[in-house]
Amino acid sequence: CNILWLKFLKPIMARPLLKIHRYFRCKPVRFFSFILLYLTAGSLVFLHSGFSSDTSTTGASRSVRDPLISEGGGGTGGGSSTSDGLGLLGRVFKETRRAPRKFGPPWMKKNRAPDVPEWAGRGVDHHTSSWSHGAKGKTTKGMDDGRAKYIGCYVDDTQKRALRGVSFFDYKKMTVFRCQDNCAERGYLYAGLEFGAECYCGHKIQAPNVSESECNMECKGEKSNLCGGPKRLSIYRLELSQESTRRYGSSIFKGCFKRPDNVTLALPASAVIKNMSVDKCVDMCTEKEFSLAALAGEKCHCGFPTPLFTLHDHEDEELCLQRCAGEDFESCGNNDFFVVYQTQVQDNRCLDRRFLPSRSKHSVALASFPGAGNTWARHLIELATGYYSGSYYFDGSLYNKGFKGERDPWRSGRTICIKTHESGRKEIEAFDASILMIRNPYKALMAEFNRKYGGHIGFASQAHWRGKEWPEFVKNYAPWWASHTLDWLKYGKKVQVVHFEDLKRDLFSRLKGMIIFLGLEVSEDRLLCVEGQKDGNFKRSGLRKLEYDPYTAEMRATIDGLIRTVDTALRKRNLSGVPEEYRPR
């Protein structure tokens, strides 16, 4: 081997370098193998460092994430299905990352504080309520706080449940609040806690009560409260809010209604059923592919909501309290007053959507502060009109959910209205008219915070709520809630104000007014169809609502002042002002 170049090296380095030179000169493959191993090792080190930083930032949220929550029947301390065949449905909440948002408060676009996280995606809202935690220990008996009343301790049999609706398990953090909230969210009348960690829901109690001393197990998530015992349920009767959905198995209870004038035309399918029960009537209408099942004693009627049978005029439920022949605990109505349920059959009359047949030169904004119900309003408008809505931004998750106008340029003229959260004068004056959605800032801020850290239908973790993120968020974005409305009122050319709460309370008439504002003819059949599918795919469940008020006294003082400012501005334009529930108390 040629070693002339070694003469220029120090004697102490000559021998090792000579060996290396001979090794790789004789075996070139070994040299390339060495280089490959070196690069591989460096890549692994780089990937490991990146993974470690990711886990450190998300570890806090994972540590407080709820354990698996199961839905369906189950045995005490286990997850076996009930005789009703409800089974178990695991719910897993995942944190997702999204692209940075293209909008924000005007004063934060240029000089964003380094500790203020970037906005990501666009949100949808969910009304957050609170339930009482229940009374302490045995003093729960006879307790009534206007939201839930403690009924007593009852026997529960794994073969024949006392409450036969859905069930939930949390062997680490079960509380009275969590159980009540879960059952109320699904419209059940009763919530029962068993074995300190199990929650059962139902419309009626089908078991005898026992001594209070037998419900003696502390709740896993709050030692100060009792959550039943072995095969014993601590049962509460829930005072459901108007927005709650009362379910019976897979169907939804709609209420008691007076017999329509022309039953044959309003409800075209009917049959007399021996040993009538809710299940039998619902099954018959489902098989015939109707969305409504109306029980009238021994007769079952099926149909869809129409102007002949709108389901708008509810009657006192006592008028329908006639026991079913096939089930003593159920009401089957009578010849004059029908008990109505919504089946799982989808009403297809309002599902067709398309782009405008010709490009419009008149652009209408659907404007709102983030978290104020914009995506929900888009869902309603698209179903009611049959036309796609557009967006000032682009959100791939919304496009994948069916908002096909999301990908269209907002000036294309092919969509019925354009979603926007912008509030600058230039951006506002670019539109010829606007529907301005306003929501209670206390609810809007929480909804947007949940979307920011949990996705469109997810929830922020306890670490985010209790950390520095929440106070910083309120500080920077609460003023924007007010300035957004004030800017649109000031610079908007033609503005129709719609309050989120009013739209929820009176969807039919409020949505009808929005369609007329958009210059379209109203189809009452489509509007009635929308009422049955109003939630869409963007409603948060009640599984992870906060159990405490996140607003401090200082935050409330600031937000209350902003509410007064917006209320004054609305009244100066001869509008009705903010709804009653907004106002400081």
From TrEMBL:
TM region(s), chain numbering: 31-51
Biased composition (Gly residues): 71-80
Occurrences of domain WSC (ranges): 147-239, 250-344
Keywords: Membrane, Repeat, Transmembrane, Transmembrane helix
Region Disordered, residue ranges: 53-86
Single GO MF descriptor: sulfotransferase activity
The keyword DNA-binding belongs to this UniProt entry's keyword annotation: no
The family this protein is said to belong to: Belongs to the WSCD family.
Stated name of the protein: WSC domain-containing protein 2-like
Upper classification of the organism: Eukaryota, Metazoa, Chordata, Craniata, Vertebrata
